[in-house]
Description:
Pfam families: MobB. This is Molybdopterin-guanine dinucleotide biosynthesis protein B. InterPro entries: MGD_biosynthesis_adapter, MobB_dom, P-loop_NTPase. The protein is of the alpha/beta class. The chain has one domain: 3-Layer(aba) Sandwich (Rossmann fold), CATH 3.40.50.300. It contains six helices and eight strands. 17% of the residues are buried. Mean pLDDT is 82; it is low at 3-10.
Amino acid sequence: MNGVTQSLSTVLPPVIQIVGYKNSGKTTLITELLRLWAADGKRVAVIKHDAHQFQMDHPGTDTFAHTEAGAAAVAITSPTRTAIIREQPSTLQQIIAELAAQSADSYDLILVEGFKQEPYPKAALIAREADLPLLDHLTELHWIYTRLQPNELNALLFEQDHSREPAVQTLPETLNLKETPIIPAGKDGIMKLFIALNAYIMSYAKR
């Protein structure tokens, strides 16, 4: 643990990851959860992982011209918004530390989309049977949000069918799916997940 992370360890807000394969509905789910938290007066920061070369700036702006001219970082601020674009990668821990450093009470929650290998509590999105191998690679899985019917998912995960390859090959030792809540996708499911995430946030605050 580096000095920055260690010094912030007592003021970090809770961090929750939303993970899933491409087109599993992560962005849609996060958007719905953000609306609920905003209506509840909560301030939530979102960190998104992009495996590709993303572009936030565009030709014709001063900041784009600065970057093209060789600036290592460009910052722009207005009365309502601030953005900093650096020409270098950052780890998830670095981004979380920077968000927390703004002040101890800047955010009630940091919500992370992606970063499957990171060690924070996760909600996994299982949109279809083909998504189940995702569970082979996760730690700290606290919730499963799925378009599959719960009985169908349970059968795929726990019932032995020797006529086919198992959907999940080798679960991490720290993962106990039988104790992981399975939440069906949909309007009611979003609210159930929202309530479950809020319960975690409240328990985190009591630590």
